[in-house]
Amino acid sequence: MHDKALRIYLNDHLAGATTGAELSRRIARAHDSSGRAPELRRLAEDIADDRRSLLALMEALGIAPQQYKACGGWVAEKIARLKLNGRVRRRSGLSTIVELETLRMGIQGKYLLWTALMAAAPVPGPIDTTRLQELADRASDQMETVEALHRTAARAVLGEGRI
C-alpha cells in the first residue's frame, strides 16, 4: 500500500468516525426514554468501539492520527446541529430522520473502509483481515439497524398514508 495515500485515507476515515461516534451518542441521548433506547445505546457503543479499532489499526501500521482531522469531525457534528428543523428550541422528528440518514451514510463509508483494506492488504501482513471482516460484518448489521430505525421514524414523522 502506498504509505502517503494510506495515511490520508485512514485519517479521513478517522474524522468520519469521530463525527459518527458523536452523532450516534447524540441520537441515543435524544431518545433515552424511548423503547429503542437500549438499541440506540448499543449502536453508539459499537460505533465508538469501531473508532477505537481504527485507531488501533493506525497504531499497528505506524500511522499517527492527525488531530486536526479528528477535531474537524467533532466540530462538523456540532455544526450540523444548527440546521433548521421547523422548531427553534427543541428537536423535531425531522432531526431524527436526517440524523439517521447521515449516520447510515457514515456507516456505509466505514463498511467500505474495512472492505477496501481487506482488498489491499497483503497476506500475510500487518493487517488482520479476519478482524477487518468482523468489522465489515458489524457495519452491515449497523446499517440494517439504522434503516429499521429510519423507517420507524419516517412513518411517525411523515405520516403513513400521506404520501
Question: Would you kindly provide a written description of the structure presented here, covering whatever features stand out?
Answer:
With 163 residues, the chain is mainly alpha-helical. It is 77% helix and 0% strand. The chain is built from 5 helices and no strands. Helix 1 runs parallel beside helix 3 (67-80), helix 2 packs antiparallel against helix 5 (129-159) and helix 4 (93-120) packs antiparallel against helix 5. The model has no long low-confidence stretch (mean pLDDT 87).
Number of H- or I-type helical stretches: 5
Average pLDDT confidence is 87
State the share of residues found in helices, binned by percent. Answer: over 70%
- Compressed to H and E, one letter per element, the order equals HHHHH
- Terminal CA distance: 49 Å
Number of E strands: 0
The Rg value, from CA coordinates, equals: 17 Å
- Secondary-structure-based class equals mainly alpha
Strand content: under 5%
The major sheet is characterized as:
none
Which word captures the global form? elongated
Poorly predicted segments: none
Please describe the structure with a list of short key phrases separated by commas or semicolons.
163 residues, elongated, 5 helices, mainly alpha, single chain
Topology:
Layout lengths: L2 H28 L6 H24 L6 H14 L12 H28 L8 H31 L4
Care to give the gist of this entry?
With 163 residues, the protein is mostly helical. It is 77% helix and 0% strand.
